[in-house]
Amino acid sequence: MNSGRRSLGQFGQQWSRRFPGRIDDQIVRHLGGAATARLQVHWTQLPAYRFVDVYRAVERYCADRGETVRVGSEYGEDLNSILHAKCPSWASRHLKMASTVAWPIGPAEEESLPVDIFWLSRKRSQADGGDVVVRLRFDAEHQRVVLEAASDHAHFAERSVAAIVELSAQLSIYRNRVLELSHESGGKDEYGNIIPTDRLRVLFKAVESVADHDIVVDDEVRQILQRNVIDLHLRRDVLKSHRVPVRRGVLFYGPPGTGKTYACRYLCGKLPNVTRIIVTGTALLQVSTIFSLAPHHERDRTDGIGDQRSSRSHQPNRVLRTPKRGVAPALLAALSPGLRAPRD
Description:
six-stranded mixed β-sheet, 15 strands, about 25% strand
């Protein structure tokens, strides 16, 4: 975290001093009892790795609206129940400091954030749409992010959620980074109980640049890489304006030690302004997650590297593909040995 930011402990002390009592009471106090009774909730769920993106998007969204109060306090109820239902006997709505999770935001960077946060935002004018309560929480049990918004107009609550999700793509911490997808399968604890930890993790990788003079390849192979990957990326807009298909890909196939990984590192260094995704092993089966990593307006500028080592074969495969709109890495096919540039 930046040294100029206040610590979470300082934030917590500020919230506790300013907002004693219960979360539902604070919402009523800030928005008014009559307005709170009319609030309607819209919500959506996202994968856990999107938490920092959505958090930053909510911060920006509420800052642009003007007067906003932020409260970090953790509850097991959804926002609609907090607003409109009687507090159950098993729950408490008293304000308490939310626990935190350290989220990776770079190859060697982390940011600790509360797992449950409320933003109480008052409208400045009719153009702002209305008062809104935004809540972001991390559901650790199901490994998901829950974004909720409440407003006295249902369509504005829905619009707020959509705007925040769209903004989260624009502000994404994954843009123009080298990412690696790792699949964690469920296991068993010391008593033999099954631990349902089956999930896909998104990790940051440091860029390991390989210079032209550091890689030894045939001139024909170098020309294929230059034409079908590097030049295609640099001249993509011009090619598209002339209706030239911009789908190209190369697949490396061969025994270990022939330079497939090294060639992929070389290509990663040649594509600094795109999101590069490295997918290995069983993570290749998580197609929907791979596709969703491409930020909305950068989908046709996302390249992927796939790596698959089958337990039945010792021959590794590598593929780097510049995909069509909305598609991240291509899955590997069993092609004959050699280097092939697939056609559209």
